[in-house]
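Database export, one record per block. Field names are fixed; values are copied verbatim from the stored entry.
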Amino acid sequence: MNEQQPAPEDDRPRVRLTREDLGSWLSGPSSVVGIDQDYRGQRLGLPVDGSGSVAGWGRRIAAVIVDWLACLLLVRLFFPGITYGTPTSSLLTMGFFLAELTLFTWVVGASFGQRVLGLAVVRLDAARVGLGRAFLRSLQICLVIPAVIWDRDGRGLHDRSMGTVVVRR
């Protein structure tokens, strides 16, 4: 705890903070603010496992890889003259990726890769993910950074800002 040591030149006590007072940066914010949560999604009212539980990172990453490979294939099919690895190819692939994420999330509630891997994107208020929300969420995924910063419930910034969560179907 706090230890008070008299100051050599003045009469004010000096307070020395210890690791127990601050918590460790490895412990995360719960070590400091005392948040007690048994599993990811508990605060959101989601089940521990099974249908409706927060999806794991392995499936999510695999879904993004499936989506990206599908978009690469579509670019090769629709634009056979474009050389793979060129800026034009990259821009077209990103455009297809954005469109695929947006349209599939809006229409069926999950991207192509998420459907293949048994995942779904749901809103926390149980409403349907609309076109605007699906587009803004997909745009943030394309920016990468919002998707790789997540909270203790396993939701990326893109999901937090749109009020969504990726769950198992």
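Remark 1: The CA atoms of residues 79 and 141 lie 24 Å apart.
Remark 2: The helical segments are 19-22, 30-33, 57-78, 87-108, 112-116, 131-142, 145-148, 157-162.
End of record.
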